[in-house]
Amino acid sequence: MTSVGGVGGDVPATPPGRSAPRDSLFRRVGDALRANEEKGWRWSARVAVILPLVALVFAITVLALKAWPAIRVNGWYFLYGKNWTYGDSYGATVYTHGVAHASGAQFGAWPIIAGTLQSSFIAIVVAVPLSIGAAFALTERMPGWISRPLGYAIEILAGIPSVVIGLWGLLTFGPWLAKNIYPIVASIASGLPNVEPFSYFRQPVGSGEGLLTAGLVLGMMIIPIITSTTRELFVQVPTLPKEGGEALGMTHWEVANRITLPWVRSGIIGGTVLGLGRALGETIAVVLVGGASLRLAPNIYQPFGTIAATILTQLDGAQADGTGFAVATLAELALVLAVISVVVNLAARAIISRTSRSGGPVGSGA
Amino acid sequence: MTTNTSLAGGATTRRRRISSGGFRVFTYASLVLIIAPAVWILLGVLFRALGHWRWDVLWTPLTAAGGGLRDQILGTLLLMAGVLILAGTVGVLAGIHLSEMAKIKKNGKESGGVLRTASDILSGFPSIVLGYVGYAALVLYFHWGFSYLAAVIILSVMVVPYIAKTTENSLRQVPTGYREGAEALGMSMGYSLRKVVLKTALPGIVTGLLLALAIAGGETAPLIYTANFANKIPHSVTHASFPYLTYVVFSFYDSSQVSYHYLAYDAALILVVMVLLLLVASRILVSLTQRHAEGSRTRARTPRAPKPPMPAEEEPPTLLDLPSRA
Question: Model's pTM, two decimal places?
């Protein structure tokens, strides 16, 4: 830096090697800072970039330590058991494997694990076709001056706080569905044979607070993610194969189905898995809309619970347990959710990085 | 070909025409089905709040009888400010490292792969899990109690990966020529980073920061676990529950007091307005400074084989860079 001044000939350059004799303290500190600027940038950036890794390791360690007693006592029952009771908190404390817990406490998380999977499944089933359709409409059918504001609208949907979406789902959307849509679905279902998937849709439709409403709301929340991923992928598909298809007399549907979609298929799967990760971890909207139950929903309209929602709703109940065992069980829930989300994220990452490297199936050279 | 088809039978042609028309209808219908709920939510929030809106909600404190949301609004802003300072510093520095300092290794891979993966996993981490960690570690183990500090730290952990990613993306859009020019003039790496590279990438970085604030401000679940809730802003950053807006929406709507229902609707409206302002500000910033991105799309520096893991945003950051926001 000091050498820059010397280039301009008559610019009074600081003599190299020493600073002017009567420099103030500030000046000297400033010079020292400037001399070490690069080192400063490098070190602070190095520290900052490691922090996410530290936070991740810290989070998983804390969860594992906290959950360890619960893992030992609950055993496999945690994953398949259906009964969730805190036991008798006023009764005698019981010790299993040296871990104190209330007598009669039993923690089977299967209903909420299943609820998590069910609601995310509904969300994906709703969101993926709509997102792909909308991405097609935005990229292939509209001029920029229409599609850009519509894209902003989708971004706004992504930006609305989930608690606001949840409140809307609870007070407006759910009741509306229960009044206008669910009875129709239920009456169609009652005409179908009374076996597993169909019988799940039969009456009673309830108040609109339950599994299907939560699935739909989750779907709305992940639509922006999948739409924007898909949209970007569609933009990257080269025009030439599409024009070639049109020239051969293909219809729009055939071009979409045989050229565009195969080109970006695994990218769409990656985006979907990202959305799935989001749906699995969503808490507040599910608490509001899903009814916060600890049992399996008897039909698709009834209250249910997810892992994330249960961690939130059961905190007060768990704190009432003087042995601390219930809080440890919540940590086990959090650990299960963390593991699921890590697996899902790594899968999405693997799928996306694989697609971004290789070319498309048709005419990759275009 | 066309004649051939029509000779082969009208059925095929009709089927093709129907499938094509059906597809067209489907694409428009799905667009409508996506936009309509967004509009419905915004209008719903607006009308629920406007029916009984009083401006003094903004500057009167919350009382047992109702009152306003002064401390809750301020609390949310203070949380955002804390996140801006903490997560902003860490995230921007991490982004600088990933874009400017990660080296290309011999096998063509980039150093920092593990760090990038960790950052990605963290960005997809359910916020409630982070909230629980904050509760177990900061609130209980460190004995901070429910507090502002715990909340800011957990929110920062949530948004740091997002800020790092948007910073990295905007730095990569700075043309290589700028860096080479700075080097040719004899600038040190630190000086050119500060005066040339960061200056050029600033709009993108600031946009990412604004959007990160929108994410943090709309968060509820981890705050319940770390900040709890209070009626008034406390005088201490630890050992005192902290007020914020999202909790009002979450828990006041079914209170036994009708005046509290109104506060929940008001809080929802204020939150939505805050988020919209941040989104609009980020858009304006992008459009004001778009000229930097023009014609400078050539990727900085040496070949960069592995693409960023998430779908790479070529251009300005959007809210959709980060999937986790629960």
Answer: 0.85
